[in-house]
Adenylosuccinate synthetase
Amino acid sequence: MKMDVLLGLQWGDEGKGKVVDVLAPQYDVVARFQGGPNAGHTLEFDGIKHVLHQIPSGIFRSKLVNIIGNGVVLDPVVLRKEIQGLGKFNINFNENLYISKKATIIIPTHKLLDAAYEKSKGDKKIGSTLKGIGPTYQDKIGRVALRVGDILAEDFGAKYNALVEKHKTILSFYDFPLDELPELEKVFFESIEFFKTLNLIDSEYQVNEHLSKGQKVLAEGAQGSLLDIDFGSYPFVTSSSTMTAGACTGLGVAPARIGEVYGIFKAYCTRVGSGPFPTELFDQDGEDMRKEGNEFGSTTGRPRRCGWIDLPALKYSIMINGVTQLFMMKADVLNIFDNIKVCTHYQLPDGSFVDRLSYELNDQEAKPVYKTIKGWNQSLAHVTTYDDFPSELRNYVSLLEDELGVPIKMVSVGPDRKQTILR
Ligand code: GDP
Ligand code: IMO
Ligand code: MG
């Protein structure tokens, strides 16, 4: 059996959590492969709305195994809170949640470092979620990080202290106050004791064994391709590999074992945090999109920047991920518009037109070139099958499919599990 991968093609928050939840009954296992508590994946069903940060979005389906892979950076404090927050759902964490011993741990000083680095950048700040993601991945690559398996060893305290001493040296260079640290450490060590009671495993064996037994595994991406450490709008990116290749390294699954790649995108674009966003709207349309789409961060509550759909960016994400099926989210948010714009190219300051995300594009003023199509301008509340779609929405879907060259297999018309139209 091959492992399918589900990931965001834009700047995150495309609706990945909802789609994982919808697809979950078809799978035996859902596994996170990168990112950490910077993610916020929202699920809505039976009148319940829940945001998951580190726990895979298959957790509400009782028969599923959920795995947090080695590529994830994990905050034990957030994990404990998340598990406690799920208390009312009667989830059997002993049977349904497994965590890689090779995943990296976020410690309190990683969060202080995140804040210190952001502060030092002034108006060049990335707009990080300040969850400690960047500094933790830095330590992982620098070969000094703590891993989940380390918490079981007797010398964990000593290893922790050695790392904190390094961090304190850096923090003193930035003149960053440490007043908060004792309280943060107290909660951290309480959470570590709780952490020890969870299933800590070598997840690469478990995932491959599930596949070998013919079971179906879905890899759940966090963030989006345009926030990828290599291919995103660097330096305004996150610190992990958010793409299909990241699912291989973040779970220990060989490239030849990748099956379907589901690319999730919104019917428009949003971005939270700093960095280039060619189709960003600063007018009433942008305001209306934010209001209609309730575009406020699931993790930080920050207003999301909004704009029209960007085809060059989507084509790029499809290319680097090998997307085989597209899922379009939040079509209902465009109900309010008489006309809908689709960015097909960018115009550069020298007057030339491009449709590639080149290295140079990042630092240039790229003006979007739009094709305008008629909107459907009506509610989609009644829609339960593709045949119910207004003709203008069908045209929009066909236009995108023609441009992107990949079939759109699902259109989402509302946040609830049920508001999902399969094609
Ligand atoms: P993720 O990080 O990719 O899982 O996405 P988020 O959960 O951060 O953000 C997506 C938001 O859109 C959440 O509030 C979802 O409940 C909501 N959502 C998902 N699909 C739809 C949809 O089709 N229509 C509307 N209106 N909201 C949706
Ligand atoms: P999900 O999984 C949207 C953004 C931050 C910031 C940049 C770097 O819910 O789609 P970091 O905390 O990683 O140092 O922040 O990346 N960012 C996200 N934006 N959705 C996310 O996750 C994000 N995770 C990080 O806003 O611009
Ligand atoms: Mg999110």
In short: The domain at 3-101+200-262 is CATH 3.40.440.10 (Adenylosuccinate Synthetase; Chain A, domain 1). Residues 381 and 404 are 27 Å apart (CA to CA). The chain is about 30% helix and 20% strand.
